[in-house]
Amino acid sequence: MGGSRVHFEVFIRKTPGSSWTLDLATENRSAALSTAQEAMAEGRAAAVKVTKEVFDEESREFQSVVIQKLGQYETPAKAAPKEDLQPLCVAPQDLYTLHARERIGRLLETWLERNNATPFELLHRPDLVEKLEASGIDLQHAVQKIAIPEAQARSMSVHELIRVFHALIERAVERLLKDHRKGALPDVDKEGFAHAAERLAQDPERGYLLGAGVAASIAPAKNWSDKVTRLMDLADAAPAAGPARGLALTTVQQPLAEILEAKPGITDVLGKGRDLGANLAAMTRLAAYDSVEMLMKVEKSVQKVMPELSPLATRLAQWLSGENFQTTRAAIGRRILRELTGPRRLCPGEAAREIDILRALAMSLTAAAGKLLPLEEVQSAFAVRSKMLVTGDFVEAYLGQGLTAYQEVEALVWLTENVIGAGNKRQAGGWLKAIISSLRFEKEMVGGDENPGARLNQLASLHRAVARCGLVPSDYEPLQEKLGDIGGHVEAASKLSLTVAKANAPLLHRLTLLLKLAAGESAPLGPAANRARAEALRLFRMDETRVEMAKAPDQSRQIFDLIHAAGLAA
Hints:
This protein is 66% helix and 6% strand. By secondary structure, the chain is an alpha+beta fold. The chain has 5 domains: 1-85, no CATH class; 188-261, no CATH class; 262-389, no CATH class; 402-494, no CATH class; 502-565, no CATH class. The protein has a 4-stranded antiparallel β-sheet with strand order 2-1-3-4.
């Protein structure tokens, strides 16, 4: 599934056989489950069910899975009463829930973008409602798009359901326009946001009324950045404490989350002209500001790819770092995950940079896991993205032209280290095997221009690296064996161990060089290391060696460490 949004819904059945009623829609799984249990414990429901709603970007529909059932869930089969055929949104207030706003945003996406507005604003601004009604065709198409799948799901006729939706829309519009004509909608710019929040804190319609004031306050904005600036100004002006502060900040973050989750809004805030990788890096820095800032101090690779934030984005990031804007932070996190699991390349034409950015994103999102996104969702998204990094097209672009076989192996080791998922690791290991097993690589290492010691050192480095890049033993051990065999050919052709043993150099220096070869530091484990081990053992047993070691205790300690590393200790 390419990109998903997840939330949870709690439905209650007040009496056995009655219809299910939506009681809560939330992005917090624990809150949904606890609400269901409380409903049963308090006797408010005869049955409760909790569903997980996953939005599929491809089909543009929510897929529902029941994750908890409590009470008299099953009912005898009988003709459904008339109320069972009603859609979930049956009153104007239902249109203001998170689930409903998301659906409105999808159905009217083009119209909203054209009018530089969010679903929150449409539901709270009389001028936008009148403009949508006047357009006619946009509203009619939206109703038809929602009525067809709903009618199939509820065994109703499409025309009947269209009439139901039109009646609901008319009631919602009439309610908003009536309140506007009566002057019931607050003017927070004139009254003061804090004062309006304090006045409405105990009103049953407080969210709707203050939302209308917020929507009117940001209406004059010329672009998305201006809207965000105005919302930040309102947040700064919120009451200092108490229920009124909670109401104020909750209301502000609803349109803010919708702006930042939409592509035009987040692009306007963060700046245009970046590729997807840079945009995701900026979004991650925005949503996980504190975690990323700390990580940048210790990880130069993260600091290298993280773009600077604009003053507005930095101001917003500081708000998002607190506990007040969790919904907004989650909205940005969902967008990051959707893009990571989507088909677009992060850095078109720059495969190496794409790996660097993906690595920095992985470290940043993992560091912020829990506060920004669940760790399992982060890992799942990077596993999906990793599949793109091990395809033939990407590997071909990544290796490019003009690299030596050794440089290609080094590049593939780095690629393997930075993909996750067992299948992706195996695929990357397959690319490594293809190069290491090739005649080109063997000829380059055995007959290369560099001296034998340098080539053996390169092979030793690769020998260690293939074991550290996350491959399972059954995948990396054959690679190590092949590298060891090639190292054996290099050593045999040059007779390096014998040459070092008989060189005109201090005895302990020769012994140290041989032990480094034998321990796998400067030669891959295998035939080359074995021959160096035999020569080192011969030198170590000489009486002259013991005398020299007694004269140089510091050098002797290094030699004994190498002896243990080479497996020569008795």
